[in-house]
From TrEMBL:
Cross-referenced SUPFAM superfamilies: Tetrapyrrole methylase
EC number(s) from the headed UniProt entry: 2.1.1.130
Keywords: Cobalamin biosynthesis, Methyltransferase, S-adenosyl-L-methionine, Transferase
Entries under CDD domains matching the protein: Precorrin_2_C20_MT
Subunit structure: Homodimer.
Coiled coil segments of this chain: none
Organism in which the protein naturally occurs: Pseudomonas nitroreducens
Superkingdom: Bacteria
Name assigned to this protein: Precorrin-2 C(20)-methyltransferase
Record-annotated Tetrapyrrole methylase domain positions: 4-221
Amino acid sequence: MAGRLIGLGVGPGDPELLTLKALRLLRASPVIGYFVAKAKHHAGQGGNAFAIIEQHLLAEQQRLPLVYPVTTEKLEPPLTYEGVISDFYDTAAAQVAAHLDVGRDVAVICEGDPFFYGSYMYLHDRLSDRYDTEVVPGVCSMLGSAAVLGVPLVYRNQSLSVLSGVLPEDELKRRLADADAAVVMKLGRNFDKVRRVLRELGRDGGAHYVERATMREQRIVALDDVDPMASPYFSMIVIPGQRWNG
C-alpha cells in the first residue's frame, strides 16, 4: 500500500503557533520533507520552516531536503526562472513519490499555510491524484503580521485584497485604489515601487510595514524609514480597513 502525502502548515515563524494537529502528524510521519535554498543547504541549514519544527523531530525520522536550484538570482538565457523552478517541482515530486511508493508516509512542511503561497501546493498539484493526501492548515504570515502589528484587518462588511508586490505598477495602483483593506506580499526588490504607489494614492499614512513577523528577527519599521535595498522577501505591508467604532 502506498504511503500518504501530508502537507503541514507550520505557521509564520513562532514555534508556539504550530497547531496541535500539525505536531501530532509531524511526529507520526517517518519522512519529513522540507524546502530549502541551495545556499542554506550547503551551509548545513534547513530553512525557515525546518527551524520551526526541528526541536520536535525524532532521531529515526528521515529528513528529505528539497533543495531549490534558484531563489532570487538572475539566470542566463535561454534559462528562465519559470522553467527552472517547474523542473525543480517535477524533481521534488519524484523524490517524495519514491517514498510514497514503498509505503512510507511523507509530511512536507510549509511555512505559513500550505495553500496560501505555499511551496507545498506545487507538489500537491502533481501528486494528489495518485496518492492519499491530507492538508493541515497553518497560521499564515498575513495573520501573523496583523497580530504583531496590533491592527485589525477588516471590519464588518469590508473586503480584503491580498496583493503581490510583483504586480506591474499601474495594476498595483488600480487594485490598491479600490481596496477597503489590503496586504502586499512579496516585497523584496519591489518595495520601492509599492511605497511609491501608496504615496501617490495617499495611503502611506495608514500602511504598516513588518519584516519576519513572529520570528525572532522580527522588525516593525515606519514605512518612510525602510531601506528599499534591504527589504527582505519575508516582509509585508498591511493597510487595515477603516476603523468602525461599533
